[in-house]
Amino acid sequence: MTNDHPATIAEAALALRSGRLTSVALTRQLQSRADVLDAKLGTFIARFDESALAAAKQADADFAAGIDRGPLQGIPLGIKDIIAAREGATTACSKVLDPNWGRGLDAPVVARLRAQGAVLLGKTTTLEFAMGPPDPEGPFPLHRNPWDLERWPGGSSSGTGNGVAAGLMLGGLGSDTGGSIRIPAALCGISGLKPTFGLVPRSGVVPLAHSLDTVGPMARSARDCATILQAIAGPSADDPTTSPRPIPDYRSALTGELAGLRIGVERAHHSRVAGFDPACRDRFEAAVAELERAGARIVEVRFEGYPEIATAALVTSGAEAFAYHRRDLATRWADYGRGARHALSMGAFYGSADYVQAQKVRTFGLATLRRVLADCDVIVTPTMGLPAPRLDEDFWAMMQWTYTPAWNLLGAPALSVPMGPIAGGLPSGLQIVGGLFDDATVLRVGDAYQRITAWHSAWPTGPRAVA
Amino acid sequence: MSDDARTTVRALLAASGIAPTAAEVEAMIQGYPALRAAADALYADAIARHAPTFLPTDAIDGTDGILATRSTDGPAASRAAR
To answer: Over 50: is that where the pLDDT of B64 sits?
Structure first.
């Protein structure tokens, strides 16, 4: 497939300011594209065509009047449908959520995008309540991977992931409790950042697990992720978990410079595990070699206790999600989708001591992170150890090769960027993890990698790609 | 599957007031031993066993402990079908 509009936020922002493009024209192009492709991809659960065009007209009028609200002015974005936006209901792709939840209100992250002049194209699909496997039996659109329509795009921020990859939007918001931004980013061949916990407000976002949930950007490039993060980061009176610390200039951190930066490579619990896909290992080693050629100093690191930290993340998310859903699971079992109710019920099988022990492992993991980052500036791993699974494959078997939840437990920033095709030409992801509140360095490494590679510029191709 | 797993799964579901279908209960029974073994492994690590657990004071910014667990529901007053 190809695109007929600027592919990135950075390119579109330049075109809008040069007068070569208007936001109305760009928005109409994307809406026309969605008219054709959305039914195949299951990207949107609700489109805001009229209000999007009104916002685009306003952006163009502002440009004409010399008003520039920033790099998102006039840029069409998608919003995961667990985040409240005033145009319509939030569903979390569930029949269980109160239809009045968040109605008529903007989550702070949405209000911030709107204040910067962004154009909100609509709400994008998610796994039910951001958890569990895809549900082909449910009443909501089944999301598909634009590289192979018989495969899963990843989740739970599935619609934002496949929408960006297929060019239906230039970027958008996802949320990440155990990998829900980074997994679709890796499987769809785009970039996605789980910011440091506490950096981005979560009020107005349907909770999954309170101590893990994070809202973050998804876009084609790390640079575009930095642009969106700049707009949504910062404390909010609505969310007491947000940090009051000043927000750095993320885009100015994107120097393209890696000389002297220490990159820790964690192979012990990832690419050296028995059964790890050799093609993914080769891609990962090629990415490490590219970073080294660009001037980074490669340091072998070992993250002690990684398996226990990953398990503690699952115990924590399982227990917290179950606490939120227990009453509804007891009274409205049949209203949940089959996969979601199974996943959410797993929390019933953990004891209170398990949860406490998981928090002890969390403390241990934070100390380990601090120790490892004494020897390096970021850690790199594969995001996933396999390509996008077919929609009929065993969802739970995939979890063994998913390297995202541990970093949610530790609150660390983690970015997934495309690192090239693996089996069947499907995308894979390189995960870049940093210290708490050092999102800037994570983005800097991702951006520098994308200056020396072109994987993030690739459009879905292949016999089963969307067209 | 052991009788222990069957008994435990059924008891925990009943304690939570959850009533899945028979097929769903069977799937949960099949998956329970692996879930239990993974959770039990958290206790086997000597370092974690002696590490302090997370405390509310850890949520104070400026430390590594930023992982507060306070509610962030909103902006709507209504939650999911409560």
So the answer is: no
pLDDT higher than threshold 80 for residue A392: yes
Domain assignment present for B42: yes
Give the one of B12, B52, B80 whose C-beta lies nearest to A363's C-beta.
B52
- Kindly provide the ipTM of the predicted complex, given to two decimals: 0.89
Task: Tell me the residue ranges of DSSP E strands in A42-185.
Answer: 44-47, 76-80, 119-124, 171-175
Per-residue pLDDT reduced to its tens digit, B19-60? 999 999 999 999 999 999 999 999 976 666 677 776 655 555
Please give the residue range of the domain that contains residue B12. 3-51
Q: In this predicted structure, what is the pLDDT of residue B65?
A: 43
Partner residue facing A211 (CB), from B16, B28, B67: B67
Q: Best of A206, A241, A355 to disrupt the B interface by mutation (most B CBs within 10 Å)? A: A241
Query: Does any domain span residue A195?
Result: yes
Sequence-ordered list of residues with C-beta below 8 angstroms from that of A125, at least 6 positions apart, any chain: A42, A43, A44, A45, A81, A93, A140, A141, A143, A158, A159
Query: Higher confidence at residue A4 or residue A447?
Result: A447
Per-residue model confidence as pLDDT tens digits over A412-455 = 999 999 999 998 899 999 999 999 999 999 999 999 999 999 99
Query: Would residue A341 count as lying in a domain?
Result: no
- CATH number, position A287: 3.90.1300.10
A412 φψ region: left (φ > 0), alpha (ψ -120 to 50), beta (else): beta
The reported pLDDT for the residue numbered A3 is 73
Element holding A88 (H helix, E strand): none
Residue B75 lies in a domain: no
Judged by a CB distance cut-off of 8 A, whether residue A293 touches chain B is: no
Is residue B76 situated within a structural domain?
A: no
Domain count of the fold of chain A? 1
Query: What is the rounded distance in angstroms from the CA atom of residue A307 to the CA atom of residue A57?
Result: 51
H-helix or E-strand spanning residue B10: helix B3-16
Nearest-CB residue to B12 (from A84, A327, A348): A348
**Residue A458 burial (CB count, 10 A):** 17
Domain membership of residue A107 as a residue range: 9-305+360-457
Burial A19-48 (b: 16+ CB within 10 A, else e): eebbbbebbbbbbebbeebbeebbbbbbbb
Token pair for A254: 């994107």
- What is the rounded distance in angstroms from the CA atom of residue A358 to the CA atom of residue A189? 32
B64 in any annotated domain: no
Largest CA distance in chain B: 50
| Higher-confidence position of B45 and A119 | A119
**Count of the separate structural domains present in chain B:** 1
Has residue A258 got a pLDDT over 60? yes
The CA-based angle A162-A384-A140, given to 5 degrees, is 35
Q: Is A40 a catalytic residue?
A: no
CA A372 → CA A33, A194, A298, A300, A436, distances in Å?
Answer: 46, 20, 13, 10, 13
C-alpha A385/C-alpha A69 separation (Å) is 41
Residue A313 lies in a domain: no
On whether any CB of chain B is under 8 Å from the CB of A276, the answer is no
